[in-house]
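ok trying again, last paste got cut off:
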Amino acid sequence: MKRLFAILAFACTMSMTARAQVGSPRSTFAFGASGGVTMSNVSFTPKIKQDLYLGKSFGLAARYTSEKYFFLVCAAQLEANIAERGWQERIEDGSGNEYYRSMTYLEVPFFAHLGVGREARGLQAFLNLGPQIGILLNETETYGGQEPWDTSKRPNGVIEQYGKDIENRFEYGITGGLGVELKTGIGNFSLEGRYYFGLSDIFGNSKKDYFSRSASTTIYARLAYMFEIK
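nice, full thing came through this time. structure:
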């Protein structure tokens, strides 16, 4: 969280600095598609031990580049992605049980896209930072391991999650990423690492609910292709 807030503070500082300068205008649209892998879990209170759940994602993106302030290229980027996320429990009570929950989301992040480097052909490093909303499309529970299932020795007796449907299908949070983009004559190719921190919970979190926190976190590794229209 401290690193996330540091990034946010840096972005706000850069934004205020940019307003105080006279920028060089741009007017470039870029459209494209992306795909990659997700590594996710859910932060629960009471705690549930987990390994990262591996999934995949793909989607479409649109970017509008408006100005350049000295070395900083400023743009806004909107995406619509389908992403597989969830959690995989690390069950170490000797029962031999296995469990994971798969959740497929429609994600819509909106970024401030800040680039440094070549605007035409060549390499450009970039930072993406902004809010993200999501809508749960479907979910699947998978029970595995030894039969019959035995939950009598779960740490702290946390078994409320089994068979419990997701109660909040709409979510929101903050997402940010760092990457590099290679600009060529046939389009732009980028590689990005991204992190999503959920601010909403998938289960109810009132005083009468069992979990006081159940928020998603996800790491993305993404490849994208975009073409520009000036």
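cool. The longest strand covers residues 122-145. Strands lie at 24-45, 50-51, 53-69, 72-89, 97-117, 122-145, 170-184, 187-198, 213-229.
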